[in-house]
Amino acid sequence: MRQVYVGMDLGSKVCTAVAIDHRGKMIDSSVFRTGEGNMISFFEGLKGRALVMIEEGELASWVARTLRPHVERVVVSDPRRNAWVARGGNKNDALDAAKLAELLRLGSYSEVWHPKDTDIFEFKLVVQRYDECSRKLARTRCQIKSLFRRQGVIAGGKDVYGLKGRSEVLNRIQSESVRQLIENEYEMLDFLFCANAKTLRILKRESTKFPVIKRLKEIPGVGPILAARFVAYVGDPHRFNKRTLASYSCLSIVKRSSDGSPIGRERLLSVNMFFPSATVKTPHDMSRSLTSFFPPPHP
User: Fold this and answer.
1) Which candidate, 224, 239, 243, 246, places its Cα nearest to that of 290?
2) What is the DSSP letter of 23?
3) How many other C-beta atoms lie within 10 A of the C-beta of residue 138?
4) CA-based nearest residue to 125, from 20, 251, 229
5) E strands within 131-286?
6) Least confidently predicted of 132-136, 144-148, 206-210, 294-298
7) Distance (Å, whole) CA 203 – CA 274
8) Distance between the two ends of the chain, CA-based, in angstroms?
9) Pairing relation of β-strands 49-55 and 73-77?
């Protein structure tokens, strides 16, 4: 059975698919409304073993999970590496899909990992939501202090976020309109604090479904949030080797030199923000320990 390479340009309303053979000759193309039935119908009409490539985006996970039972393989590529698609002179959906199919045929792409396990996929959404809430909470706190500083009020420490502390510092604002703006920010802060607490409870509840999280917490410096992030973002550590796993987890030592002389000190490489390097004292030992908690894949 022949090999068919399919590139798909995804849209919220319509999708465009282009199929080529092993020589790069177009054998089929279609534009259809975005939907599970339409996608499956297109691939059922293809004669051959279909390899599919799409670009990372909001629809990518759903499309990949929908198509995997119906095609040989689904590849989610990094659009930042597909300069031929993004920076081409002529650009439309059909042309982009054809370029994706050609890049897939040539093997010239950088793949973005998506979990095949539904439980891992849903757990990753929970962890991502918690991280997003935490970032919004931290940003709102900074905005409140920034508004105070613009009025010449220096509000230091965390007391300014409490009910008693905020009342004291708000009384130092003379402008009624500015005071109301800051009160609005406090309302947003209270909402985000409650949302973050609820998301944390969901995260801890869902963490109990993964025994490996309990084992990861046995490592010094690894708490429930850090362990949950590792399982959610790394998923299967065997897709890395030891060096790349350490780099992805911010556990890799960076050495810089020029003309044979070292530049600065050795430092931890900050590639992925889910592993705060401040908590890690022995990166290489910890990386080996994390890998050893997961059984090797079955041949």
Assistant:
1) 246
2) T
3) 11
4) 229
5) 253-254, 257-258, 261-262, 267-268
6) 294-298
7) 15
8) 25
9) parallel
Structure tokens at 68: 């995997």
Q: CATH homologous superfamily for 3-106?
A: ATPase, nucleotide binding domain (3.30.420.40)
Closest to 39 (Cα-Cα) out of 73, 62, 19, 15? 15
CA–CA separation, 166 vs 149, rounded Å?
14
Describe the strand order of the beta sheet including 26-33 as a list of residue ranges. Answer: 26-33, 14-20, 3-9, 49-55, 73-77
**How many residues are listed for the chain in this entry?**
299
The C-alpha atoms of residue 92 and residue 85 are separated, in whole angstroms, by 10
Structure letter (DSSP) for residue 53: E
- Rounded to whole angstroms, how far apart are CA atoms 291 and 216? 10
DSSP state letters, 194-219: HHHHHHHHHHHHHHTT-HHHHHHTTS
Q: What is the pTM of this model?
A: 0.74
Tokens encoding 218: 């046995």
Q: Which two tokens stand for residue 260?
A: 């044979």
Strand partners, 73: 51
Distance CA(96)–CA(17), nearest Å, equals: 9
Model pLDDT, residue 274: 54
Which of 42, 46, 39, 20 is closest to 98 using CA atoms?
20
Distances (CA, A) of 202 to 129, 188, 199: 10, 21, 5
pLDDT tens-digit map of 187-213: 999 999 999 999 999 999 999 999 888
